[in-house]
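Record type: monomer structure entry
Structure origin: computed from sequence
Chain ID: A
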Amino acid sequence: MLRSVGQKPVTGREDDPRVAGLRTAVSRLRRQLAAHPAEFPDRAIAEDELAALAAMAAHGIPETPRLRRSLLLIAGAIGSVSALSRGLTDVRDAVDLFMDPPHR
């Protein structure tokens, strides 16, 4: 779906701030990864999983198990690339907002 900068999709409901945060973090990491000059073996995995996260966030509240799986794959693929660590942390923090609070 193509949109002009600043336009939001019309969904007939208010966006969940967690979803908006996830979209922002994923978009930022995708841009950082695209601009990163070095090739590494699992780059395609990271790109695919970031695309999957973006698609999930575009269609409402994503399923928590799928978010966790994607995050693990992305972290495994780019975890050693220090230039991407801040973006990865932002995505992890955004995913963490969807986790159930710990039981007491």
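Annotation 1: The helical segments are 17-35, 43-58, 64-78, 85-96.
Annotation 2: The chain has one domain: 17-96.
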